[in-house]
Amino acid sequence: MTFDEWLGWSKLPKNEARMLLQYASGYTRVQLVTRGTDDLAESALQTLEALAQRRLKGEPVAYILGVREFYGRRFTVNPNVLIPRPETEHLVEAVLARLPENGRVWDLGTGSGAVAATVALERPDAFVRASDISPSALETARKNAVDLGAAVEFAHGSWFDTDMPSEGRWDVVVSNPPYIENGDEHLSQGDLRFEPQNALTDFSDGLSHIRHITQEAPKYLKENGWLLFEHGYDQGEAVRNIMLKNGFAEVATEQDLAGLDRVTLGRLPA
What we know:
This protein is α/β, with parallel strands linked by helices and 270 residues long.
């Protein structure tokens, strides 16, 4: 069977079939076009069939391939971490816009480390810490930082309660916490079925972690420091109210490219 024949025969969407074919064969996308009449090696065909069956059962392509692109870089991903999504790039942009020269930023619940590593690479002058309650997630985040050459300090623990002292206050605290409401139908659909549930939902109203972080953040932020959250498309008003009730100023919500509420932020007044 040739490359072109397999693409025509596959039941997968063509873009996904090409991604799996590249992975199994080692060919680039250009080679798949220019050498489409080449025969697939039997070993590659067997690998490809196994990958295709996993995808047909719903497993995310990112987990099958073990990588996902974020902010122009390739991050290792696995079922221990959420798959980085394009919407989270807005969170990175918001951090970079508010991080002063030689500033300090703490990424709470770092997961794959996509936010922390990206900030560290985009702003090598900054000191970046990343923490997570999951040792497996931290292992993945550390690997990504090493592979990409990002200078990130890692800490293990739940939100601000980690195995490393704060050692001073922070210019920016950022988090993409579990914010999906318990029982939301999306948790049983698509890629979310395969992602770590405790990184998706707080098993409550979706806002409990945001409340906790917002209440604790003033103990760790510098005066005029910023707190930023990624959250659900319908949670902007609720998150703004939480931040306002906890004394934050200049509270605002930024939208993603689809025009949906995605990032809410506020400044701790002097």
